[in-house]
Amino acid sequence: MLNKLPSSISALLDARTNGHSLPAGLYTREDVFEADLDVFFHKHWICVGLDCDVAEPGDATVVDIGRTSLILLRDDEGQLRVFHNVCRHRGSRLLDAGTTIVSKLVCPYHTWTYELTGELGFAPHMGKDFDKSCHNLKSVNFKSIEGLIYVCLSDDPPQDIDLLERTMTERLAPYDIRNARIAHQTDVIEDGNWKLTLENNRECYHCSANHPELCVSFVDLDFGFDPESLGEEDRLQAEEHFRLYEKRTRAWEADGYPSAAVEQLSECATNFRTQRLIISGAGESQTYDATAASSKLMGQMTRKDLGDTHLWGHNSWNHFMGDHAVVAIVIPLAAGKTLVRTKWLVHKDAMEGVDYNLDKLTDVWIATTDQDADLVARSHAGVLDPAYRPGPYSRFSETNLDKFATWYIDRMRAHGY
């Protein structure tokens, strides 16, 4: 049975038509879900958290990816560490889900005790000849890219994360994400496959009809439109918008703020895109009136008119603005269940009720995430229906979905499916 599994998935991959959504089984089948976890969440770089999740020595947080449990922590010297949440004795979990503060990592089963560097310091009743140094915690390959923590659970992580690292190190430096503070966090479980969650995020075809709060500040035309479907007035407005984009991008870059689109979406392992986007309306932030939610700007930022530096990967999307940032991390739970964990960041010294109003800070993306959860659930229910057939992507508004689906097929093939 196991020997037949890859060929069965391979048949689904073969069935995909370019320019169309994926065959139903690639969204719904349990064997595909297990393959996705192995390929995309174990053998590729994924975003799992932030430096400021563990801001102080002794801070620790647990992140679960399928059957794999990780501990993010900061050791006594202030160094970031990522370990497997597995005792080297008989495999017990060391820490429960959530955040905590620890001075050492003590296994609750037999009290094997580890330093925050991962070294085994105490293992009772194991005899004088027991070599503790052979039983340190297993560390995980990770990178902190200007405060965004990426891990790869493979011993052979993709090297092409270098472009992401070079690009975002420069772009994120002024926001000082490493030293930001998490003002709020939500966990929303969507009733849909993780790929539907990502597809929904990679297009704004649906935005004007479903995201009234977001569309105050977010320009849906930025991700494509059919010029022939627009009336004369709307077409002229769109043309003017893109002339303004070119002008703003040149001005931002002349002032030392990299802004042009950089993307690595095909023929690669590490999938990402970034660009500095214009914020509509008042032009300051993704809030209900497009003005800044926090009077204390992020990091070393001194301007509110620098738009939205967006970044997406295959399990995350992010928006970095002058006054705050929104970081969303996607974690598959089952073929039809996906966790979307959203964090709102502010300057480390910003005080709620003094420098910012929490409702204004969070309302837009709380509403947007809830709306998206409903859309993803509808999509998943549809692909489960026997009447579902892969439909054509819009060549104007959904080109990034076609690229994602093509990348998905290519990466599955690269790993033997």
TrEMBL record:
Domain of life: Bacteria
Keyword Hydrolase attached: no
Listed CDD domains: RHO_alpha_C_GbcA-like, Rieske_RO_Alpha_N
Pfam family for this entry, one: Rieske
UniProt-listed Gene3D superfamilies: Naphthalene 1,2-dioxygenase Alpha Subunit, Chain A, domain 1, Rieske [2Fe-2S] iron-sulphur domain
Keyword vocabulary terms for this entry: 2Fe-2S, Iron, Iron-sulfur, Metal-binding, Oxidoreductase
Name of protein: Rieske 2Fe-2S domain-containing protein
Species annotation: Endobacterium cereale
Native organism taxonomy: Bacteria, Pseudomonadati, Pseudomonadota, Alphaproteobacteria, Hyphomicrobiales
